[in-house]
């Protein structure tokens, strides 16, 4: 059974958005303190508690007794106090911000990982602040140059830093640095990664097992796309496969980026050839292109994509995928950062296993 999305015609319906009614402002003291003049110590004195109790109430209210929590929150409300993480960093030298630089906003693998990472960090009072690099060295340089002013508690990347100047700049921050989505021998500091090379080899093995003897590679031109290509070519050579053509994309911005590749690819495709699409956005786009192409009927090339297994395997019809559990990666990244911030001993490198989802015929 196939599903179809149909746009609603006519006037849009209003959403019944939840509204929380604030207390009547007349209940507050007639001359409330201005929030810029009030700090945690002031709140603590008013509530007759310690400053650490106030901090715990603001960051993890569930661990503070109800009576104490309510008393502190009422004073916070009356004074207009706002906890500002950047101000806190300037005042104490310790920030509650963890900065994440992600390669793409539209890639499901990154968004899934960062959502989980954010959830785990939030449970411990840390806020995840996200910046976008778009696989660009210039954006990476610009983002890293601003970190000294932000003073984050830690920094993580959905990738590994290639420019030495950036690697050195990050070391000089003297905060935990976590890289991911690859498995180099020499991470800057901490690493939660997997082997892109092995992903390429696994894809070649899959296509060989399906009877393919001529194969195609589609992916990004540089970075981790190049690592997957290297593994794919090595696997193909070992198995006696011929890499018939390679399609490389400089930048991937949307599902539509697959269309120009597909126009060129389908002129070459014949029965029982194989395709490894080593980018999740391109794979989803190409899968849709092939599904909607009536001229392909009778020609059934085998295709395997790359990305988050749980997300990519939900396509209709199903798509074979080599990849990882992005949620597990995000969880491990958060825990590794938290352990470092809490001074706990731990290994500095963690490996995420790669797996394959095989589509049913």
Looking at the structure, what is the overall shape?
elongated
Give me the Rg, rounded.
25 Å
Helix percentage: 40-55%
In the CATH hierarchy, what is the architecture of the largest domain at level 2?
3-Layer(aba) Sandwich
Q: Assign the CATH topology of the largest domain.
A: Rossmann fold
- CATH homolog superfamily of the largest domain: Response regulator
State the separation between the terminal residues, measured CA to CA: 14 Å
Mean pLDDT: 82
What's the β-strand tally? 12
Question: What number of structural domains do the residues give?
Answer: 3
Number of helices: 14
**Uncertain ranges:** 1-36
Percent of residues in β-strands: 15-25%
Give the biggest beta sheet.
Answer: 6 strands, parallel
The sequence of SSEs as H and E is HHHHEHEHHEHEEHEHEHEHEHEHEE
Biggest sheet: strands side by side, in what order? 2-1-3-4-5-11
CATH class of the largest domain: Alpha Beta
SS-derived structural category: alpha/beta
Using brief descriptors, characterize the structure shown.
361 residues, alpha/beta, 434 Repressor (Amino-terminal Domain), Rossmann fold, 6-stranded parallel β-sheet, 41% helix, 17% strand, disordered N terminus
């Amino acid at each position: 059974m196939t599903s179809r999305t149909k746009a609603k015609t006519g006037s849009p319906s209003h959403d019944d958005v939840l509204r929380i009614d604030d207390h009547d402002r007349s209940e507050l003291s007639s001359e409330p303190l201005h929030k810029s003049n009030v700090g945690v110590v002031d709140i603590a004195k008013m509530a007759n508690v310690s400053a650490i109790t106030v901090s715990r109430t603001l960051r993890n209210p569930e661990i503070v007794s109800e009576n104490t929590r309510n008393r502190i929150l009422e004073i916070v409300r009356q004074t207009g106090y706002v906890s500002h993480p950047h101000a806190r960093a300037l005042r104490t030298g310790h920030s509650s911000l963890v900065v994440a630089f992600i390669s793409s906003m539209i890639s499901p693998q990154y968004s899934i990982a960062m959502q989980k990472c954010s959830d785990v960090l939030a449970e411990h009072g840390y806020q995840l602040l996200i910046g976008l690099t778009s696989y660009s060295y210039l954006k990476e340089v610009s983002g890293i140059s601003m970190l000294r002013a932000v003073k984050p508690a830690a920094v993580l990347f959905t990738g590994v830093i290639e420019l030495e100047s950036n690697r050195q700049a990050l070391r000089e921050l003297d905060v935990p640095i976590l890289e991911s989505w690859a498995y180099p021998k020499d991470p800057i500091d901490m690493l939660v990664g997997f082997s892109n090379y092995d992903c390429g080899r696994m894809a070649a093995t899959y296509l060989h097992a399906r009877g393919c003897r001529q194969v195609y590679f589609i992916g990004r031109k540089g970075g981790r796309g190049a690592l997957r290509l290297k593994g794919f070519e090595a696997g193909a050579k070992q198995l006696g496969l011929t890499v018939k053509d390679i399609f490389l994309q400089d930048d991937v911005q949307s599902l539509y980026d697959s269309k120009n590749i597909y126009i060129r690819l389908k002129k070459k495709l014949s029965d029982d050839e194989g395709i490894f699409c080593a980018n999740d956005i391109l794979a989803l786009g190409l899968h849709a292109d092939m599904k909607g192409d009536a001229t392909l009927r009778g020609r059934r090339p085998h295709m395997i994509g790359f990305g988050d297994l749980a997300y990519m395997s939900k396509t209709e019809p199903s798509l074979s995928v080599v990849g990882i559990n992005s949620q597990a990666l995000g969880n491990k990244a958060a825990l590794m950062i938290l352990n470092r911030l809490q001074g706990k001993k731990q290994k500095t490198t963690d490996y995420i296993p790669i797996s394959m989802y095989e589509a049913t015929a």
